[in-house]
Amino acid sequence: MPEQDLHICLSFLTFPRRSTPSDYQQHKFQMYLRHCSVQSPFKRIILHRFLSSNPNDDVQRVLDIITSTSTPEHLKQSLKSSGVFLSNDLIDQVLKRVRFSHANPSQTLEFFRYTARRKGFYHTPFSLDTMLYILGRTRMFPHVWDLLIEAREKDQSLITPRTVMVVLGRIAKVCSVRQTVESFRRFKKLVPDFDTNCFNALLRTLCQEKSMTDARNVYHSLKHGFRPNLQTFNILLSGWKTPEDAEGFFKEMNEMGVTPDVVTYNSLVDVYCKGRELEKAYKVLDEMRDRELLPDVITYTSIIGGLGLIGQPDKARDVLKEMKEYGCYPDVAAYNAAVRNFCIAKRLGDAYGLMDEMRCKGLSPNATTYNLFFRVFYWSNDLQSSWNLYKSMMVEGCLPNTQSCMFLIRLFRKHEKVEMALQLWGDMVEKGFGSYTLVSDVLFDLLCDMGKLGEAEKCFLEMIEKGQKPSNVSFKRIKVLMELANRHEVLQSLTQKMAVFGKPLLSS
């Protein structure tokens, strides 16, 4: 091969990984290969790696390699022989799938490091943050810090305030406030700009994972080392449960010369509405208009929710019309708030009427909308209404979420409706919605109680094929029944498949 041709081919094979090749670049390269002197099989390898026929197939292929290999060497060899072009976009998609499928974190880390070691390759911030989330979720915190140090040495710009929030969020879930703050301080040597944005990331984490009292104490202890800004106060204001606390921070904000915005006022309106102080909420609306800050759909959604709490669902529905007069049009969330009010009042006819109105306005009810009805049907033990609603939901193309699935599967369990439960499970497997782990625990309970071992085995295998690990509790229950039924070969096969997710379960 001429030296010039070899140089061009190698340059394409090491295409900068910060972005995937554009359509024009792919077309240009393909035309070049047709006329250059590169011969097979080298030519075919380049084309296969550079021009993937179906990115989704490649993502699934890589995910299968991660879930099916048990050693780093096996993983590397499988990736090399796959011929998949490991672009940034593909890696982002693979890690996203791993995050939601709870695939093997150790092998995923090996995949991440294997791709990072390629010459001229740089991971995206999304890839780094997703990998850190996966490690933090499984409490592999030493690996988290090792990976952050590696990222700092190769490309420090990858470590952002979002990275800080991702890592601290996982730490705060299982560690104390003190340990979370100590971890925050460790980032001072890792983040290029350890500033107020990082401080805000810590406060947001504490508001989400700890108590507002903890967030307030940390704010007061660290605020002198940073310069609190509008976002700082908006984070803290959005978390308060009592009007007194929110008013105190709003006062401090004004004393520091920080001008409130719509988000700030929305937090005040929300806390007043949740505290059933609608008169104060309406005064905030007047103050916003005086400052030429127009209330938005979030403002009115809080008002609608607050009116429901004081038993005025009809007045809340009128707010939907009032919004339009101010040039603000309700979205799905605003309608959901009004629907919720009627569901709480057991006025399902009015609630269904609002759903029809949504459709007439070009808005599609979402899973949250349907869950408002599922909750009513679940607590009234109304199986048929739940089933009818589920079928209409699927016909409309609105996929249930985990909460929808749990309302349904628990009702099926209570009524011992195996066929309905299996249809729900089949739809989940086919369309990819809901939490396999949470739903399968209830499903396996039902199948085992009804002696449906064959169906339990089938669902168990489907779950594993999706890269999802059945809980040990479910497996142990199936194991006992398999042993009683003398189905030892099937049990041995299931045990081996479970071993893919980690340490094999003992058969004794």
TrEMBL record:
InterPro entries: Mito_RNA-Proc/Resp (IPR051240), PPR_rpt (IPR002885), TPR-like_helical_dom_sf (IPR011990). Gene3D superfamilies: Tetratricopeptide repeat domain. Keywords: Repeat. Coiled coil: none annotated. Pfam families: PPR, PPR_2, PPR_3. The keyword Transcription does not apply. PPR repeats lie at residues 261-295, 296-330, 331-365, 366-400, 401-435, 436-470. GO terms for molecular function: mRNA binding. Belongs to the PPR family. P subfamily. PANTHER family: OS03G0208600 PROTEIN, PENTATRICOPEPTIDE REPEAT-CONTAINING PROTEIN 1, MITOCHONDRIAL. This is Pentatricopeptide repeat-containing protein. It comes from Clitoria ternatea (Butterfly pea).
